[in-house]
Design brief:
It contains 13 helices and 16 strands. By secondary structure, it is of the alpha/beta class. It has 2 domains: about 5-180, Rossmann fold; about 185-370, 3-Layer(aba) Sandwich (Rossmann fold), CATH 3.40.50.300.
Length: about 375
């Protein structure tokens, strides 16, 4: 077996063999057969990537059911283009039926969210989701993934229906981009900014460009609790008592997360939040021989923040973003507790100061230019 392949200008190394894929599919089919055998089921494959996986999985389904395919494109090159097209090709009625969406891969969940929002308009009885591979550290949505074949790091992969610029789908094994495997030049960033400065948006774009893991401590905490891990149980017990989780426990959860995701760099979104967290965090990074490439400070005036947050509140119905007193209180907390961390990092970190009052792409271009 050739452990490496070249697709266009990139080299990939085998990570999941055809035999492993077959075993994964058998396991998924067994669970689906057991759970859904007495229901009226329509399987829905999402093209282009899932056509091989959907066909192999459907052959293992042992109860009467139907399968259909939808066309949707959202990927270009090595990362998501963010340009999600409308669904095309749903000719099968799914009203009052159990719908099983078949995906080859789920990472951020942006595509999945778009699909589900549209499919709900066709009034299925329920929607289940099955995927061959899942990137839990990239996943940012709340939809439950009912059937997961294999969890993988946030690496770029090709083969078995997955492609790089349209090529590589025909490979029987799944291969990981060699740059991701070797992980020679990890880039690690922290993004700071007041509420409304656009931290989450810019962190997501940065993670996408450099194949980083976008880390929100709130997301990690929720994952640990939902998975019922040891640290998750401790955190839940504290939260249930109405108490605050200590800096030490937060850092322990982050340390455990980093240990499980050594192949990728990371971008921290709004963390650390206090000076004490920053100092404990620095100590932990030093122990793990990790460094912060740059601290990105999104500068924005308060009037622009207020206008942004009120506009956001109107669009998304977020009541707390519509109240000027609440906005001012959040800004006061940021200025008093979080902003002083910038001065701490100026002593021993690369600080990139960005004018965040401009449009999203303009802000991002500033960040990339300064990083380069």
């Amino acid at each position: 077996m050739n452990n490496r392949v070249t697709v266009l200008d990139k080299e990939f190394e085998i990570s999941i063999t055809a035999k492993q894929i077959s075993d994964i599919i058998n396991g998924l089919a067994a669970r689906i057969n057991n759970d859904l055998k007495n229901k009226d089921v329509v399987f829905l494959g999402i093209l282009n990537g899932s056509f091989i996986f959907a066909a192999d999985l459907f052959r293992k389904i042992n109860f009467p059911s139907k399968i259909t395919f939808l066309k949707l494109a959202s990927y270009d090159g090595l990362s998501s283009s963010g340009k999600i097209k409308r669904l095309i090709g749903l000719n099968e009625s799914i009203k009052d039926k159990t719908l099983v969406i078949i995906e080859d891969i789920i990472d951020s969940g942006n595509t999945l969210e778009h699909i589900i929002m549209q499919l709900r308009g066709y009034e299925p009885k329920e929607i289940k989701i099955a995927t061959l591979v899942f990137k839990p550290m990239a996943y940012k949505k709340d939809f439950k993934i009912d059937y997961i074949g294999m969890e993988i790091p946030n690496d770029f992969i090709v083969g078995y229906g997955l492609d790089y610029d349209g090529y590589g789908r025909n490979l029987e094994n799944i291969y990981t981009l060699v740059d991701d495997v070797n992980n020679k030049d990890l880039k690690n960033f922290i993004i700071f900014g007041s509420p409304g400065a656009g931290k989450g948006t810019q962190a997501s774009k940065l993670a996408e460009k450099y194949n980083l893991i976008h880390i929100s401590t709130g997301d990690i905490l929720r994952q640990e609790i939902s998975k019922n891990t040891k640290l998750g149980k401790i955190a839940k017990n504290i939260i249930d008592k109405g108490e605050f989780i200590s800096d030490e426990i937060i850092i322990d959860i982050i340390a455990d997360f980093l240990d499980k995701n050594k192949k990728n760099g990371f971008v921290f979104d709004g963390f650390p939040r206090t000076l004490s967290q920053a100092k404990i965090f620095d100590k932990m990074l030093k122990e793990k021989n990790l460094k912060i490439e740059a601290v990105i400070d999104l500068n924005i005036d308060e009037e622009t923040v207020k206008k942004r947050m009120i506009r956001r509140g109107k669009i998304y119905g977020r009541i707390d973003d519509l109240d000027e007193n609440t906005i001012k209180h959040r800004l006061d907390i940021y200025n008093e507790i979080t902003k002083p961390i910038i001065n701490y990092y100026k002593k021993n970190k690369n600080i990139i100061t960005i004018n965040a009052s401009k449009k999203i792409d303009e802000v991002f271009n500033q960040i990339i230019k300064k990083i380069n």
